[in-house]
Design brief:
27% of the residues lie in helices and 22% in strands. By secondary structure, it is of the alpha/beta class. It folds into two domains: 40 residues, no CATH class; 267 residues, TIM Barrel. Helix 2 crosses helix 3 and helix 7 packs parallel to helix 8. The longest helix has 15 residues. The protein is globular and about 65 Å long. The two termini are 35 Å apart. The model has no long low-confidence stretch (mean pLDDT 96).
Length: 334
């Protein structure tokens, strides 16, 4: 840190994400919150949040990371992705931050989490990639108090800052928004390859717990071909233990004319993933107890029964094994 490169003609290049924005003095990057101020890339959102909220960890969604625990969630403004279907567009796309911002230092956030009995703090709502320095400093304060850290991210980050960020993260849910270059380019104004590299890095080179989420938009990223390719890539590159969430899209931002995802589409994706060999598959943004339940991969009995975000039955032992057959369940549990 800082992640920047000084070019000629007083241009400074931000190197946090693959956009590598070249910024004249006082110009802001694509993300809006990183700005060239007198030759230094400055995080203008440092110490500023769009609010704090206490959530169940399942809402992130994380189903295999201290299930049933509370998490303190916060984010800032802006985003380095250009998703036309953004579900949080009111904070990621706005340029008018008056009335949205609250002051909160990293230490204050950590102390608030401790005060309210939260197991972890989540960097979410927009993306911790763009408020990297704020997220890292907050993570350090959290770890000093025994509080875990969670990154909810699109994974669009360059290799060097990626190492620095995930050195301080205990669990991540990475949005794998689709599985084609065309979808990422047209719908997200981004490239899929850095995302795939981030996913592989987190799973294979860090102790960070990883789960993936794909928001399914009918007619855009829900073809059988793309879903099979995605699931096969996951099995080949990550193994079969990474939990995969398929979530329902609701009309938002620039896709308000697209209908909500049919639950049958989520079930189709669920079945494709299971057939590919992925052990833990879930559906989100709909209420389906079966596809929200964690099943033992060996005996197929329910390990964690859920209704919405509420746990109704828990059949894991202290050693993360199935109470019925003894098979180990992948994840981090109490």
């Amino acid at each position: 840190m800082p992640y920047q490169n000084t070019l000629k003609d007083n241009i400074t290049q931000c190197l946090v994400c693959p956009r590598n924005c070249r910024l004249a003095n006082y110009q802001r990057g694509f993300c809006f919150v990183r700005q060239n101020i007198d030759g230094e890339i400055t995080l203008t959102a440092y110490g500023k949040t769009t609010g704090l909220a206490i959530d169940p960890v399942e809402k992130k969604p994380l189903y295999h990371f201290y299930p049933g625990s509370k998490v303190l969630s916060f984010g800032t403004l802006g985003c380095n992705m250009g998703c036309c279907f953004c579900q949080n567009w009111h904070i990621t796309k706005t340029k008018d931050h008056t009335g949205l911002i609250q002051e909160a230092s990293p230490k204050e956030i950590a102390l608030s989490a401790k005060q309210y009995g939260c197991k972890s703090v989540a960097f979410t709502y927009n993306d911790p990639v763009i408020f990297l320095e704020y997220a890292i400093d907050t993570a350090i304060e959290c770890h000093a108090l025994g509080i875990k850290t969670i990154a909810v991210t699109a994974g669009y980050i360059n290799p060097e800052p990626r190492v620095d960020l995930f050195n301080h993260i205990d669990a991540a849910n990475i949005d794998l928004k689709g599985f084609s270059k065309e979808f990422y380019k047209k719908m997200c104004l981004a490239d899929i390859e850095p995302v795939l590299e981030t996913i592989k890095y987190v799973k294979n080179e860090t102790p960070c717990h990883l789960e993936l989420t794909t928001l399914l938009i009918e007619g855009f990223n829900d073809s059988n071909k793309d879903l099979r390719a995605q699931c096969d890539w996951i099995v080949e590159n990550l193994g079969t233990d990474v939990p995969l969430h398929f979530s329902a899209f609701f009309p938002s931002w620039k896709l308000k004319n697209v209908h909500p995802t049919n639950p049958k589409t989520l079930l189709k994706a669920y079945q494709i993933a299971k057939k590919a060999g992925i052990k833990y598959v879930y559906t989100g943004n709909i209420c389906d107890d079966k596809t929200s339940t964690t099943f033992c991969h060996r005996c197929k009995k329910p390990l964690i029964k859920r209704h919405g975000f509420e746990i109704k039955e828990y059949n894991l032992t202290e050693k993360n094994s199935c109470r019925f057959c003894g098979a180990i369940c992948g994840g981090i549990f109490e």
